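This section describes the prediction task in plain terms. A model, or a person checking by hand, is given the sequence of a single protein chain and must write out its three-dimensional structure as a string of tokens. No templates, partner chains or ligands are provided. The sample shown here is typical of the held-out split.
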Amino acid sequence: MPNVKHGEDTHDTQAAHVLSDKDVRHFLRKYYYIANEPALDKEYGDLFTEDGVFIMGNQKATGRDAIRALRKKAWEEVPNRDHDMVKAFSHGNHDDDTELMILGTATWTYHEGHQNVGDWAAHVKLEKGEDGKVECSYYQIIMDHSVHSKKPEHANKPAEKEKSK
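The expected answer:
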């Protein structure tokens, strides 16, 4: 995995708790790197447990194959995306980084070429094996999906050249 900015800063300097588990920090960097790469559907599914759950809006996928299929459909609709994790908070026990709330921003680029930027959050549950391997058992994206319906102002206006005719 190349050096990437996604998830490099996995602690919240405003909060009392810093994610202490290096395996979880590594997993999150890997997760958001893979999430931003359209050709990595298999690898994305492999980030989840066999019975992992992925929820995006009103769509829910259970199991690696279903998660891969939902991801593939999402890439067809938005061909370029860039997610940046801004903050991660552990949920509950501060000695356990396996249930998290993550805040981030994303830039989506559409087939027409325009971009939208928005905030997102995710409720994430991770499982860590004795070997240190981390897998996601639950991932729910929380965001205002209307950001995808926003078009640039010029999208519905005739070109200047046509206006002057």
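For orientation: The longest strand covers residues 115-128.
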